[in-house]
Amino acid sequence: MEGTQQATFELEAGRDGQATLTLRGRLDRDTTASLWRESTQQVREVRPKRLVVQVGDIEYCDAAGIALLMKYKQIQEQNEGRIEIRDLRPQFQQLMALFETDHLVSPPKLPGPLANAIHNTGRWAAELAYDFAAQVSFTGEVFTKLLKTLLRPGTLRWQDTFLIAEKAGANAVGITMLLGFLIGLILAFLSATAMEAFGAEIYVADLVVIVLFREMGPLMTAFILASRSGSAFAAELGTMKINEEIDALNTMGLDPVRFLVLPRLIAAVCILPLLMMFNHLFGLIGCGLVMTTWDVSAGMYIERISEAATLGDFFGGLVKTFVFATLIAGLGCLRGLQAGTGPSAVGDAATRAVVSSIVAIVVADGVFAVVYRFLGI
Predict the structure, then answer these.
(1) Least packed by Cβ within 10 Å: which of 47, 90, 173, 300?
(2) Is residue 117 part of a domain?
(3) Are the C-beta atoms of 263 and 161 separated by less than 8 Å?
(4) Which residues contact 192 (CB under 8 A, 6 or more apart)?
(5) Around Cβ 159, how many Cβ atoms within 10 Å?
(6) How confident is the model at residue 365 (pLDDT cuts 50, 70, 90)?
(7) Are the C-beta atoms of 328 and 268 separated by less than 8 Å?
C-alpha cells in the first residue's frame, strides 16, 4: 500500500499467526509521518503472533524512522507478540543502538473514575490543610507585629495608612449610603405588605431597625469592603510580588508585613465601623420613606425606632465590624502575597481574596450569633 512517493509499506498476513511488514524508500521526518498512523493501525488490527519487519529496501533512515520501528515493537509487546527486524543496514543499526529498544516504556494507564475521585479529594484536602496552616501562620505574624507597632506607633507608615483609609472609606461612602437606603426601603416595603393584613404596620420600624443594627448593616457593609478594598489589597500586593517589589523590600531589610499589611489592616479596622453607621442612617431613612406611605408620621416613626433599638443591638453590630474588617484586610493581603506568576495571577488573587473574605465573614457572623445567644444579647 502506498503512503507517499518516497515511503511505502506493505503488510502481508501469513499462516500460523505470522505477518510480514515491508518498508521501502526514505524514513525521514516527513515520510515517516505520512505512513505512521496507517501502518500502526494495520498492525494492531492484524495482531500477529510474530511480526517480521523487512527493511532491506530502506534507502535513508533517521531518528523518526527508528521511532517508527520502536513503535512496532511496542505494539507487539502490548499484544504479547514477537517482532524481528530484518536486513537493517549497518549504519542504521548503529543509530538504532542508541535507543534502548529492549526496554520500551509503555505509557501509564489512565486512572479510573474512582481513582480520579480519590486523587482529587486528597489533593483538595491537602490544599485546604496547607491554606489553613498558611492563614494561621500569617495571623500569628500579623498579630505579633501589630502589638509591636501599638507599643511603638512611630514605626507605622501613617501617611500611607491615611491614604488607604481615604480610598477604602471615604470613596466608599456613596455606595454604602445607596445600598443602605435600598435595603431599608426594600425591607420596610416587604414587611409592611405582610403586616398590613394584621394591622401591624407600625411594627415594621421595630423589625427593620433590629435587622439593620444586628445583622444586615454589619454584613452588607463588610461585603462592600470585601468587594472593593479586599480585592484591591490583593491586586496591589499581587502586582508588587509579580514585579518582584516584595523581594526588593526583603533585600533592603524592610518587612513586607509591617511595611504593606499593617497600614491596610489598621485602615480597614478604623473605617468599617464608620461605614456601617452611614449604612444604618440611610437604611432608616429608606424605611421612614416607606412608612410615610402607610400614614405613619415622622414623630411616631422616630419614637418606634428609639424604643425598638437598644445600645446592645448597636454595639453588638459594631463589634462585628472590627472582626470583619480584620478578616477582610488580612485575607486580602495574604492572597496578594500568595499570588503566583502569569497574566492571570493578579485576577486570581483578587478573586480568592473576595471569596475567602465572604466565607470568613459568614462563618464569623454565625459564631457571633451563637455567642450572643448564650450571652443573652
Answers:
(1) 90
(2) no
(3) yes
(4) 201, 204, 290, 291, 294
(5) 9
(6) very high
(7) yes
Helix extents (H) in the chain: 29-46, 63-78, 90-97, 113-151, 158-168, 173-195, 204-211, 217-225, 231-242, 245-251, 256, 262-292, 298-308, 311-337, 345-375
Distance CA 54, CA 20 (A): 7
Residue in the block written with cell 548503529: 94
Q: Which three cell numbers stand for residue 30?
A: 516527513
CB 253 within 8 A of CB 216: no
Structural domain ending residue among the three candidates 48, 70, 97: 97
Single out the residue in 63, 79, 97 at which a domain terminates: 97
DSSP label at residue 153: G
**Position 304 pLDDT exceeds 80:** yes
Structural domain of residue 19, as residue ranges?
7-97
Given strand 82-86, what is the order of strands in its sheet?
7-13, 18-27, 50-61, 82-86
pLDDT(176) > 70: yes
Burial of 90 (0-12, 13-18, 19+ CB in 10 A): exposed
User: Is residue 80 a contact partner of residue 111, using CB atoms and an 8 Å limit?
Assistant: no
CA distance 331 to 265: 10
CA separation (Å) from 60 to 91, 98, 363? 10, 17, 71
Confidence category of residue 324, pLDDT binned at 50, 70, 90: very high
Per the domain annotation, does 294 fall within a domain? yes
